[in-house]
Amino acid sequence: xxxxxxxxxxxxxxxxxxxxxxxxxxxxxxxxxxxEFDRRGDELTAxxxxxxxxxxxxxxxxxxxGATAAFLEVTAIIGLSWSTLWEEIESGALxxxxxxxxKLPRLPKTIDFTVDYLRSGLPRDAYARAQVNRSGRRYASVxxxxxxxxxxxxxxxxxxxxxxxxxxx
Length: 169
Prior knowledge:
Layout: H1 9-25, H2 28-33, E1 36-40, E2 43-48, E3 55-57, E4 62-63, H3 65-91, H4 96-100, E5 109-117, E6 126-135, E7 139-147, E8 156-163
C-alpha cells in the first residue's frame, strides 16, 4: 500500500500564510498600529514599523508607553492564537479559506497584563516574540519580549494571562 504524496511546499506555505493574514487583518487595531507578523514555520515575530505618531515624548524622542504596551499585548494574543490554531491548520481540521472569508475564531480575552518598561523605545522599528508558558482549555499564560536593534537588549517585556475562548461556541 503506497503512502499518499505530501503536499507541495508552496501549497503548505500558502495555507499557513493565508491563515495568519486572516487572523491579523481581522483586528482593525493591529492595522491602526501598523503591526505586521513574520512567520518562520510555527514561530512568529511581530514587527511594529516606526511611525512619528508612535512617539510619546518628542524631547527624547521615545515610543509612547501605550503604543509599546499595545504592541506587546497584540503580540501575545496573536502568538497565543497562532499556537492553538497551528495544529488545526496543519491537520486540515481548519480550512484557511474559511478564515480568509472572514469566519475567524474567537480570540483569547485578556485577564491581566503586566508590562515592564526596561529602557526607552527609540524612534525605530520594534520587534517582539511571544512565548506561551501555559495553554489549557480555559486559561493561558504568555510572556513577551520586545527589542529594537539587539535581541539581547529588550526595551520592554510583559506577562499576560488570558481566558481561552470556548470551543463549543
